[in-house]
Design goal:
The protein has helices spanning about 5-10, 20-30, 55-65, 120-125, 135-145, 225-235, 240-250, 260-270, 295-305, 310-320; strands at about 1-5, 35, 40-45, 85-90, 90-95, 100-110, 150-155, 160-165, 175, 180-185, 190-195, 195-200, 205, 220-225, 275, 280-285. It has three domains: about 1-70, Phenylalanyl-tRNA Synthetase, Chain B, domain 1 (2-Layer Sandwich); about 85-285, 3-Layer(bba) Sandwich (Phenylalanyl-tRNA Synthetase, Chain B, domain 3), CATH 3.50.40.10; about 290-329, no CATH class. Helix content is about 30%, strand content about 20%. Strand 11 and strand 12 form a beta hairpin. It is of the alpha+beta class.
């Protein structure tokens, strides 16, 4: 994964006298393999650190390892409210598959499809992603930043306001964005409007609802799909995209709930006159989170070092681990 040096400098506060090469060496020494390649920094996280396969994840890790202050976009850091409705006057979500655990949709009106600003093109180019247009490029940038793939639809091309996530019909056909036609099986998952499949879920959108120069209203989708289901479809069809690669190995992404807000934020920045409608969302009922009780003595024994209580609390806060200190009785 490549991250532009300019992006890192705009999200982390590096010491005035810091030397990039020294920082790279320190990060590698601490377990985050890092290399400078031109104007970009290349990061190679360990395969089990799925939380590091995003720019925000890497920035947060640098904050944790080196204690450099971190500054992520404030609006983007707000999770969407779990009480958001599943239906609005512009659309409704229907779930008919066990392989989707969450989907969030938002309609944004009065946009104009034009080439992206140069800074977005440069950020995408750092990871060899070709620019397409400003709305699609926003989705790709958010995917790089948060690790959460998004999809953009031309809202006015939808044949129904009811958006259904379901298993495909046997031999149902879809023409994806690249122009390829696939004959699907009941093991594949699609997103549909009425009976029309508008997306091969987790893999690619359909040409039928692709944005173009005439698009004025866009529907943005952020969803969580079961990795094994997306991987199975991708392997069966012998076709993969960056989105399917993300979905095939990630579940409950650490920044997934922030991605839609980040996309909305960027759309507002680029289209000041755009109008955001109410967000609609569906989330599978989650199991109650477990609370773990652990003693400082246990932590010190495992680490082999003595820690002051204040230092331990500082470390837990830097790791973004919510905790409550309980005094012994």
């Amino acid at each position: 994964m490549y991250i532009p040096w300019n992006w890192l400098k705009s999200h982390l506060i590096f010491p005035d006298n810091s030397q990039p090469q020294k920082i790279v060496e320190k990060l590698t020494e601490l377990g985050l393999e890092t290399e400078i390649v031109g104007q970009n920094w290349q990061f190679t996280p360990l395969p089990n650190r799925l939380d590091l396969f995003s720019w925000w994840g890497i920035a947060q890790e640098i904050n944790i390892l080196l204690n450099y202050p971190l500054s992520l976009p404030l609006t983007s850091q707000q999770k969407l409210n779990n009480l958001i409705e599943q239906e609005a006057n512009w659309g409704k979500i229907i779930i008919n598959t066990p392989h989707c655990s969450q989907i969030q949709l938002v309609l944004i009106k009065n946009i104009k499809i034009v080439p992206s600003p140069q800074w977005i093109k440069d950020y995408l180019a750092s990871n060899n992603i070709d620019p397409i247009n400003n709305s699609v490029d926003i989705a790709n940038l958010v995917m790089l930043e948060t690790g959460q793939p998004l999809h953009i639809y031309d809202y006015d091309k939808l044949t129904s306001k009811e958006i259904t996530i379901r298993q495909a019909l046997e031999k149902e056909e879809i023409i994806i964005l690249s122009g390829k036609t696939f004959s699907l099986s009941m093991e594949d998952m699609v997103i549909s409007a009425d009976r029309q499949a508008i997306s091969l879920a987790g893999v690619s959108g359909s040409q039928a609802t692709a944005v173009n120069n005439q698009t004025v209203n866009i529907l943005i989708e952020s969803a969580l799909f079961a990795p094994y289901a997306i991987k199975k479809t991708s392997q069966r069809l012998a076709f993969s995209t960056q989105a399917s690669q993300y979905f095939s190995k990630k579940y409950n992404l650490p920044f997934g709930n922030y991605a839609l807000n980040r996309a909305i934020e960027l759309v507002k920045e680029i289209f000041p006159g755009s109008e955001k409608e109410q967000v609609i969302s569906w989330t599978k009922k989650q199991q109650n989170k477990k609370t773990i009780t652990i003693s400082q003595e246990f932590i010190e024994k495992k680490l082999g070092v003595k820690l002051k209580s204040e230092k331990l609390e500082e470390i837990l806060n830097r790791l973004h681990f919510p905790f409550k200190k309980v005094n012994k009785t």
